[in-house]
Design goal:
- The protein has 207 residues and is an alpha/beta fold.
- Helix content is 18%, strand content 22%.
- It has one helix at 2-38, and strands spanning 42-44, 65-69, 85-91, 107-113, 127-131, 138-140, 149-153, 159-162, 170-172, 196-198.
- The strands form two sheets. An eight-stranded parallel beta sheet has the order 1-2-3-4-5-7-9-10. A two-stranded parallel sheet has the order 6-8.
- The longest helix is centred in the N-terminal third of the chain and has 37 residues, at 2-38.
- The chain is elongated, with a radius of gyration of 21 Å.
C-alpha cells in the first residue's frame, strides 16, 4: 500500500508539473499573440517557460524592450531586430552568444548568465550591466565606443585591459578581484569624464 501511495504521489506530482509547464507555454503564446496584434514596444516573458524565443519574435521590429527574468532561457536566438533594451536574469544555461545581438541594442543587463566573453555584443551599447557572471575574468572594452554606464558586479573580474570610451560617466566594479592598479588599463586608470565610481569589495578597495 505504501508503494502504491508513493507511485500515486509521484504520478500526481509529475502531472502537476507537466500541467503547470503547459499552462506557462499557453500564457507565452497568448502574450506573443497580444504583442503581435497591438505591436507593443515592451515585451515581458518573465517567470514563464521560454527556453527559446518563438521564431516569429525575430520579426517583431516594433519591440524595443525585452524582459526575460527566470524563464529557463537556453539561447538568445530570435531576438527582435530593432531591440534597444535587453534584460536577462537567471539563465545559467546560456554560456555563449552564438549570433550577433541586434545592432540597435543600447542597454544590456545580464544577471546570473554564464557567458564566457563579450563576443557578439554590439559596439552600440550605452549601458552594460553584468552581475554574477563568474565566467568572465578579463574585459576589453575597446569596441564599446558609445558606452556611458558600466556595471560589472560579483564576477571575479581580474583585469580590464581597455576602457574604449571617454564618454563613460558611471563605473561600478564591486565584488571582483581587482587588487591593484595593474588590473586597470595603462593608458588611463579611469575614463576622464567619470562622475560615479564604485570599487567596493575588491582587494584594492573595501567599502
Amino acid at each position: 500500500n505504501d508503494n502504491a501511495n508513493d507511485n500515486n504521489k509521484e504520478h500526481f506530482t509529475n502531472t502537476n508539473i507537466n500541467s503547470s509547464e503547459s499552462v506557462r507555454r499557453s500564457v507565452v503564446a497568448e502574450i506573443i499573440d497580444y504583442n503581435r496584434y497591438y505591436k507593443k514596444a515592451y515585451l515581458d516573458l518573465s517567470q514563464l517557460a521560454v527556453y527559446r524565443l518563438p521564431d516569429e519574435v525575430a520579426s517583431f521590429n516594433w519591440v524595443k524592450k525585452l524582459i526575460l527574468r527566470n524563464c529557463k532561457l537556453e539561447t538568445l536566438a530570435n531576438l527582435p531586430p530593432q531591440l534597444e533594451v535587453l534584460v536577462v536574469e537567471e539563465a545559467r544555461d546560456i554560456t555563449k552568444i552564438y549570433q550577433l545581438l541586434p545592432s540597435t541594442l543600447k542597454v544590456l543587463y545580464f544577471f546570473n548568465v554564464n557567458i564566457s566573453s563579450l563576443m557578439n555584443i554590439p559596439s552600440t551599447l550605452e549601458v552594460l550591466r553584468l552581475i554574477n557572471t563568474q565566467t568572465i575574468k578579463f574585459v576589453d572594452l575597446r569596441r564599446f565606443t558609445h558606452l556611458k554606464k558600466l556595471e560589472l558586479g560579483y564576477m571575479g573580474l581580474q583585469n580590464i585591459t581597455q576602457w574604449g570610451s571617454d564618454n563613460i560617466t558611471e563605473v561600478k566594479l564591486y565584488g571582483n578581484n581587482l587588487v591593484d592598479q595593474d588590473a586597470f588599463p595603462t593608458n588611463a586608470i579611469f575614463p576622464k569624464n567619470i562622475k560615479i565610481l564604485w570599487l567596493g569589495n575588491n582587494g584594492i578597495c573595501n567599502g
